[in-house]
Write a structure and sequence with these properties.
Helix content: 25-40%
Order of helices and strands: HHEEEHEEEEHHEHEHEEEEEEE
CATH topology of the largest domain: phage-related protein like fold
Number of helices: 7
Largest sheet: 6 strands, mixed
Low-confidence stretches: 96-121
Structural class: alpha+beta
CATH class of the largest domain: Alpha Beta
Distance between the termini: 47 Å
CATH architecture of the largest domain: Alpha-Beta Complex
Number of domains: 2
Radius of gyration: 27 Å
Strand content: 15-25%
CATH superfamily of the largest domain: phage-related protein like domain
Shape: extended
């Protein structure tokens, strides 16, 4: 079956709109006209959805070509930099900033849009996962600590004429985030530098270093949720995980206006996907990753048998400056090995613990 082009979709959409306008402008609205208008409206929604999907595909296709060119340039620059280090012609570290869009190297040569996953330029599943949860990022902070205020959510009150406003009675608290160093290393042989010209190899080195940093950040943030939200934690060890538990988590945050998601371990996700929320009905965890009407995620860094429900924009990742890749050509010189070390100054925190609730020790059989 031939694929309908964008112009054909637009022309079809215009024809449907004309028919709908004719019905609206008719002197009498009959039952047949009303039913026809409903059918046209359903078809219009389907066409609008298809147009949006085609626009997204066209954008990705055109953008990927641009990114493929930039990928090779970035990889070759990294390769040349490694060789210069090995030859002793430079001692400058290879620095790059951690930004989702745009992603910009400090050499200001290439601007790379990291949101296109297929390109895999300095792509970290951990970073992508945190951003999909809407975690708040503070990038490129200056020196020193960062103090964030914390205020509980409150509602104003109606007052009588010529009366004073009621006090919010909120006690402000603050949290201090301190730059902590996260780092790991990888070895590269001089033979590899001399014999390999495939750009993907050098991109894989950068990706591995980049991902290692964010794997640590993800784990640290999840640990903070468990500790800081202890007051909002329910122990479910006495009962089997059920649909009631999921609904109770939603109701526990019912007094707040939040943009919430569910987050759990893959083992819990698997259990919920094979468990019906009521007899002869759909599974609790939908195939489109929807749980109780909210987006749902799983991650191996989550504690096993634990579910978090909350607004992850109230979780914070702070980064002090760019990530640096530093090469040591001396320590393992006797073996012809360069030691690559990646380091960043990062801290994580929960901005408002009241925005989360946790179910722990879920019994999933």
């Amino acid at each position: 079956m031939a694929k309908i082009t964008m112009n054909e979709l637009k022309n079809k959409r215009n024809r449907i709109i004309d028919k709908m306008e004719d019905i609206v402008n008719s002197k009498t609205i009959t039952r047949a006209n009303s039913e026809a208008w409903d059918i046209y409206n359903i078809e219009l929604e389907r066409i609008d959805k298809e147009i949006a999907e085609q626009k997204q595909k066209n954008y990705a296709r055109n953008h990927n070509y641009y990114l493929d060119q930039r990928a090779s340039e970035t990889a070759l620059r990294f390769k040349d930099w490694l060789k210069n280090i090995a030859n002793g012609t430079t001692t400058e570290p290879f620095r790059y900033e951690m930004r989702a869009d745009p992603f910009k190297t400090t050499t200001d040569v290439a601007i790379i849009n990291k949101t296109v996953k297929d390109n895999e330029i300095l792509y970290s599943p951990g970073e992508d996962f945190l951003r999909s949860l809407n975690v708040t990022f503070f990038d490129n902070l200056g020196g020193g600590q960062l103090i964030l205020p914390y205020l509980t959510q409150d509602t104003a009150g109606w007052v009588a004429e010529d009366a004073s406003a009621a006090s919010a009675n909120m006690v402000p608290k603050s949290m201090t985030l301190t730059p902590r160093r996260v780092s790991h290393t990888q070895s590269v042989t001089k033979e590899l530098l001399a014999n390999t010209n495939n750009p993907k190899l050098y991109l894989s080195i950068l990706n591995n270093l980049h991902s290692g940093v964010f794997n640590a950040i993800v784990k640290d943030l999840f640990d903070n949720i468990t500790v800081d939200c202890a007051a909002q934690t329910v122990d479910a060890s006495a009962t089997t995980l059920s649909w009631t538990h999921i609904c109770n988590m939603e109701s526990s945050l019912g007094t707040y206006q939040l943009n919430t998601n569910y987050l759990t371990h893959p083992s819990v996700k698997s259990y919920l996907k094979t468990t019906q929320y009521m007899s002869n009905l759909d599974s609790i965890w939908k195939d489109d990753d929807i749980l109780n009407g909210y987006p749902a995620y799983s991650h191996p860094s989550m504690p096993a048998k634990e579910i978090v429900y909350g607004d992850f924009s109230k979780a914070v990742v702070c980064m002090w400056g760019p990530i640096n890749v530093i090469v040591d050509p001396y320590s393992a010189a006797v073996r012809g090995v360069l030691e690559l070390t990646v380091e960043a100054l990062v801290d994580t925190a929960i901005w408002n613990p009241d925005a989360f609730t946790i179910l722990k020790n879920c019994s999933i059989g």
